[in-house]
Design brief:
The protein has 382 residues and is of the alpha/beta class. It is 49% helix and 18% strand. Strands 1-13-12-11-2-9-10 form a seven-stranded mixed β-sheet, sandwiched between helices. It has a six-stranded antiparallel β-sheet with strand order 3-8-7-6-5-4, with helices on both faces.
């Protein structure tokens, strides 16, 4: 009767079934301590680019200063951005590449192609020299002998390249509609503004509703300007926004929230999110993101669907509840039956059978986790 089989099986059996079901759903749980973290979490911080949005931006607008050539702006800015891995930079480089190639083909016909590049073979962009990334603000380098600067307007202003009124108006108009605008300057003058747009993932708004249903307060965290961040937040239903945060400061934001007494989960996908993922009480990384972000997180979401983060919290909490249920019933069973066995009031054959049944109960109760369904299934069924 004193055999602790059921107690010994209570935790590992639930963990095995829960993590196995998570793996089937594309949710990789790194360790049992993660389960306790999910129970206490009350705030979820969401990185914007690549997490709430698709991260696949496209060049949608070009504005040049008076007297400047649009093709030259695209060639120099595209060449410099081509050396960067940032989603905005990739969009600028791809758009400039395709736009320049189309411009060359159409020049003889007297037509100008659309700004947004959708495919086709692009032109060859020059290779920049002395390329440098200015963390969270832009890039700089030398292209064909020109000292080129691409990034935030404040960066150009610090380098004595203020935007003329026409460019400032174009930048403000883009940002007011939730798009991202970058300023371009070279040889000491601001020359133009490039506009790129990112789209919100179709499931992000539903994921935010699921976070609220779980008792979590969503916060949007981004390095983009306040207007862009607010536009995205309004689209997905997030009320609290922390914008214009440099990559190195994201961990400080998470730490500040923790100092306020919150238990924080962080969802991100990029290299810039790794420190914040490690600082958070619970780090969830998109498996479509950078390896360093995945390594720094507690949970990895193989799918790029933000709803998987809500499912990860639900599954972890369900697994923890199953562990506690197993332990309670196994301990209660022993506590009730041991005195009866010690007093000789329990037939040894019945005691042996009952102990086997207690282990069977723990196994069967844990197997119930195999029936866990993601919320997306419930939505489709409805």
């Amino acid at each position: 009767m004193a055999c602790p089989c059921a107690l010994g099986l209570a935790t590992p059996m639930a963990l095995m079934v829960g993590t196995g079901r998570g793996a089937q759903l594309g949710i990789l749980i790194k360790g049992p301590e993660v389960l306790e973290s999910t129970r206490r979490v009350d705030t979820v911080v969401l990185d914007k680019t690549g997490t709430v949005t698709t991260g696949r931006m496209a060049l949608t607008g070009v504005t040049v200063a008076d007297g400047e050539d649009e093709d030259e702006l695209l060639r120099l800015a595209g060449a410099l951005e081509n050396a960067s891995e940032h989603p905005v930079a990739r969009a600028v480089a791809k758009g400039a590449n395709v736009r320049l190639a189309a411009s060359a083909r159409e020049e003889s016909r007297g037509r100008r192609p659309s700004v947004e590049g959708g495919g086709g073979r692009g032109a060859d962009l020059p290779v920049p020299e002395h390329f440098a990334n200015i963390e969270g603000r832009g890039v700089q380098g030398t292209v064909d002998g020109h000292a080129v600067l691409v990034g935030r307007a404040s960066l150009l202003e610090e380098r004595s390249q203020p935007l003329p009124e026409s460019l400032s108006a174009a930048l403000a108009a883009a940002e007011s509609t939730g798009r991202t605008a970058v300023a371009v300057g070279w040889d000491g003058r601001a020359r133009g503004v490039l506009v790129v747009a990112d789209t919100v993932k179709p499931t992000s708004a539903e994921a935010v509703r699921q976070f609220r249903d779980l008792g979590l307060t969503p916060i949007l965290l981004t390095g983009d300007n306040e207007a862009v961040a607010r536009a995205v937040a309004a689209e997905v239903g997030v009320d609290e926004v922390i914008a214009e945060v440099l990559p190195k400061d994201k961990a400080d934001v998470v730490r500040r929230l923790q100092d306020e007494g919150r238990t924080v989960a962080m969802v991100g996908d990029g290299v810039n999110d790794a420190a914040a993922l490690a600082q958070a009480d619970l780090g969830l990384s998109m498996g479509t993101g950078a390896d360093v972000a995945i390594e720094a997180s507690d949970l990895t979401l193989v799918r790029g669907d933000l709803r998987a983060a809500a499912d990860a919290v639900r599954l972890s909490r369900r697994t923890l509840a199953t562990i506690r249920g197993n332990l309670f019933w196994a301990f209660a069973y022993n506590s009730a039956a041991l005195p009866l066995a010690a007093l000789g009031l329990l037939n040894p054959m019945l005691a042996g059978a009952a102990m086997a049944l207690s282990s069977l109960f723990v196994v069967t109760n844990s197997q119930r986790l195999r029936r866990f369904r993601p919320l997306s299934d419930h939505v489709r069924a409805a």
